[in-house]
């Protein structure tokens, strides 16, 4: 068990190091040691602010920014979730912005189109509402989550080659929620297109939001 926990720490450490290396490519001068301290947080805040400004999107005050790091369906938590409160970054962790292998190889058919749902890069103001309650066991997936309440743009990728295909798009309410993703290292069945975070981090994130609070869907790619 101790060996398993150490492995998780190493994986998370290496992911945070990858985030620092990304920031260094964008002008930061960080020691890529995998420890997200004040300097790394400041560099990340500047990077996100610049990217949002470049896209003419709204800055985040109290919500979540999702960073997609590649155009692959990897089944891994190799993207990032960045949580803001009162305009400050308060939490950063690994995430997945793409579906797990189960839904890559068993895509759904929605609106007559067959394919795995992949949220497109976008910002939709007020798109998700935080759902919680006194008894979590009564909630969907047994935990607080953010429910999609406004239409967003998704790709429908049906060729199962693990590369994001942007040719087919849909716009609507497809249940692209933000939620927990279990205790393991792989996305698997935890996402059919939702934005997901491993449990260890998810239960830290939900402490920072209140029942009924709405936040934006802000997702951008860090590559290309």
Could you characterize the architecture of this molecule?
With 224 residues, this protein is of the alpha+beta class. The protein has one domain (2-221): L,D-transpeptidase catalytic domain-like, CATH 2.40.440.10. Helices cover 24% and strands 30% of the residues. The chain contains four helices and 13 strands. Strands 3-2-1-13-7-8 form a six-stranded mixed β-sheet, sandwiched between helices. Residues 1-10 have low confidence and may be disordered.
SSE blueprint:
Elements (H helix, E strand, L loop, with lengths): L1 H24 L12 H18 L7 E6 L10 E7 L2 E8 L5 H5 L3 E2 L2 E2 L1 E4 L2 E10 L13 E4 L3 E6 L11 E4 L5 E3 L14 E3 L1 H7 L8 E8 L3
Parallel strand pairs: 1-13, 11-12
Antiparallel strand pairs: 1-2, 2-3, 4-5, 6-9, 7-8, 7-13, 9-10
Question: How many DSSP helices?
Answer: 4
Distance between the termini: 40 Å
Helix-strand string: HHEEEHEEEEEEEEEHE
Low-confidence stretches are: 1-10
Write the CATH architecture name: Beta Barrel
Radius of gyration: 17 Å
β-strand number: 13
Category from helices, strands and their pairing: alpha+beta
Overall spatial form: globular
The CATH homology group name? L,D-transpeptidase catalytic domain-like
Summarize the biggest pleated sheet: 6 strands, mixed
The mean pLDDT is 93
Helix content: 10-25%
Please state roughly what percent of the residues sit in beta strands, choosing from under 5%, 5-15%, 15-25%, 25-35%, 35-45% or over 45%: 25-35%
Strand order of the largest sheet: 3-2-1-13-7-8
CATH-defined topology: L,D-transpeptidase catalytic domain-like
Q: Can you identify the CATH class?
A: Mainly Beta
